[in-house]
Structure formats: structure tokens, C-alpha cells
Protein 1
Amino acid sequence: MSTTPEHPEHPERAGNSERDVRREVTELQSRSATAARLFDIRRIIGGLFVVYGIIVTIAGITASDADIDKAEGVNINLWTGLSMLLLGLFFLAWLWLRPVAPPTPADDPAEQPGRTG
């Protein structure tokens, strides 16, 4: 029977120094922060509204007189497209002005002292 446990409690016993473990944790934290910024819902909603707003605005600009007459004289595609474009730009400006803060380990309730996850 071996005296070395299969799951060592100390990273030095597994061949990893404390410096290596800290470097790996730092890399994982930076990846997590990048993923949080990338998948922020404001970016997704803002981007979709901008794209659809451009498409609908172009449809409103190229609308025929018959299309405008169907809507009782209102170029609904133009107004809807511009509204969508403004809303999308609002979401993207909000994201730019108030970026998401990366999560800290203390924010995780499972890691708080005295609590069991």
C-alpha cells in the first residue's frame, strides 16, 4: 500500500508549486471576466436591435406609396426602424458607460465561511 494519497491535499505534493496554482487561478479569473463581458445581455439585446433597426429603417426608406397608404399615411417601417435603432444604441451606450464588474470569489454564496453548498 502506498503512503502517497491519490488526492493530495497540498499542491506541492502533486508537482504544482503554489506559484503555478496562483497563475492558473489568475488565468481562469481573467477568462471568467472576459466571458462575463462577452455574454452581457445588454450587448446581445443592443446588437440585435441595432441590426434589425437598420433593416427596418431601410425598408421604411424604400417603402412605396401603396405601402404607406396601407398604414393610413404613416411610414410605420421608418418610425419603427428608427425607434429600434435608438433603443439598440441606448443598450450599447449603457454597456459602454457601465461595464459589468467581474465576479469576486466573495460573491459566491457557496464559498462563504460557515455555509455549506
Protein 2
Amino acid sequence: MVTHVPAEAQGDERGALLSFVEAQRGAVRRSVLGLTEEQAASRPSASELSLSGLLKHVAETELNWLRMAQQQPNEKERNEETWPDSFRLVGDESIPGILAFWEKVAKETEEFIGSVPSLDDTFPLPEAPWFPKDGAVSMRWLLLHLVEEIGRHAGHADIIRESLDGKGAFDLVAEEQGGSWG
């Protein structure tokens, strides 16, 4: 981990978990720092992944989990036909637009988690081959899953960014703070 996640206030489990989610969000956001739209859309490895595609995918994935927890329809729900579009910018989508969208999702996630009576509260999982039948998970599980999901893609983003221009996570943290590392 290249950024320090502050210790929670005594007994502030929600705050601690949200801080770890935000740390992973920051890693993905920093991956596009200083890049053009074309650079961020490039795929410098055998993978189909690009930085701008990862940014969009992670933002939409957080929204999807938030809507499941809220038990509301997902306005960006994907199906088998539109799934590939969750990994690439289409039409007039841009990095600033995706970042603004994700900022709204992140704020809504934090407000929602702050409003639930308990992190032990649960919500049902949808029917899918990868979920248990009639499964449910807690709000705590949701936050831990977001750390896992976003962190996995932050690792992908690290490799892609290093392949583009050699900048690693430490370099990007320093650049974001107006300095240099090493």
C-alpha cells in the first residue's frame, strides 16, 4: 500500500472501512493522472484492459453494489450484450466525466453507509450462478467487498500504467501531491 489509511476513531468501524474503500479508489483514480484520453484508452499488454476502461468499470461496479444494498434498480445495469461497454469509454464519455460520475457514486455510498442502522443489516444477493441460493450479505461485507474489488483493479491499473510510461504507484502519489519520488 502506498498511501497511509488513517486509524479509525475508537469504535468507528464504518469510518475505518470507508477509509480503506477510499484508499483503493484513490489508487485507481491516480492511475490516469497526467495521461491523455488516448493514452488512458490504450492497451499496452495482452490484456483487453485499459486505464480508462478500468476507471469506468470500477465506478459502475460500486454503483451496482450500492443499488443492490439499497434494494433499488441500477440505472447503469449491464447485460451480456452491454457488458463489454463497462470496460471502455463509448460515445462522448471522457475521463473527467467518469471521474465526476464516480465521485457522485462514492458520496452516495458514504451517505448510505452512514444512514444504515447497523453494519450487520443485510440485503439479498441476486440470483446468479456465483451467489448462493437465497443468499444475503451485510453492509460490512459490502464494504469489505468494495475494498477487495477496487483493490484488485487498482493492481491491474498499476501494471498498465507502468507499462505505459514506467510510473509506479509511489511516483503517482508523489505527483498527485506536487512532488516527485526517488
